[in-house]
């Protein structure tokens, strides 16, 4: 899919912010995630701003990186999955075609 996430960082950010889902830390250039407009965390001298938070894959909740990887393991390259993300406080659904290396 082309994102980076970390289980320990995710747990801490969820606890601090009260969110439930996978905090997208980084989006890889030219990835499926970038093509659909996913945004990662932005860090500046003033602090950190969360980007998108993944909350479901094809309607099934994902609250941990391990669960996300398990869900993605059910699909193959070329499959189109529906990601539900929280984007700037609003829930939205995105169709993502899985690419090699996802």
Give a quick rundown of the structure.
Keywords: Hydrolase, Protease. With 102 residues, the protein is α+β, with helices and mostly antiparallel strands.
Describe the secondary-structure layout.
Layout: E1 3-4, H1 7-17, E2 22-23, E3 26-27, H2 32-35, E4 42-44, E5 47-49, E6 53-57, E7 60-61, H3 65-72, E8 80-87, E9 90-97
Keywords: Hydrolase, Protease
InterPro entries: Chloro_Bact_Ser_Proteases, PDZ, PDZ_sf
Domain PDZ: 1-89
Give, in order, the helices and strands: EHEEHEEEEHEE
CATH homologous superfamily name?
PDZ domain
Structural class: alpha+beta
- CATH third-tier fold name: Pdz3 Domain
> What is the CATH architecture assignment?
Roll
Low-confidence stretches: none
Overall pLDDT confidence:
91
- What's the CATH class, please? Mainly Beta
- The number of helical elements comes to 3
Global shape: globular
Percentage of residues in DSSP E strands:
25-35%
Q: What is the number of beta strands?
A: 9
**What's the domain count?**
1
User: How helix-rich are the residues, as a percent range?
Assistant: 10-25%
Separation of termini?
4 Å
Radius of gyration: 13 Å
- Give a short account of the largest sheet: 5 strands, antiparallel
Description:
The protein is an alpha+beta fold and 102 residues long. It has one domain (3-97): PDZ domain (Pdz3 Domain), CATH 2.30.42.10. Helices cover 23% and strands 34% of the residues. The chain is built from three helices and nine strands. The strands form three sheets. Strands 2, 6, 7, 8 and 9 form a five-stranded antiparallel β-sheet that branches. Strands 1-3 form a two-stranded antiparallel ribbon. Strands 4-5 form a two-stranded antiparallel ribbon. A hairpin with a 2-residue loop joins β8 (80-87) and β9. The chain is globular and about 40 Å long. The model has no long low-confidence stretch (mean pLDDT 91). This is PDZ domain-containing protein. Keywords: Hydrolase, Protease. InterPro entries: Chloro_Bact_Ser_Proteases, PDZ, PDZ_sf.
């Amino acid at each position: 899919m082309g994102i980076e996430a970390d289980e320990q960082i995710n747990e801490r950010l969820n606890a601090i912010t009260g969110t439930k889902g996978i905090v997208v830390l980084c989006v890889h250039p030219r990835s499926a995630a970038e093509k659909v407009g996913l945004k990662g965390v932005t860090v500046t001298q003033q602090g950190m701003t969360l980007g998108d938070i993944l909350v479901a894959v094809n309607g099934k909740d994902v609250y941990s990186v391990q669960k996300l990887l398990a869900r993605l393991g059910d699909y193959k390259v070329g499959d189109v999955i529906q990601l539900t993300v929280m984007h700037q406080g609003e829930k939205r659904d995105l169709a993502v075609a899985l690419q090699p290396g996802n």
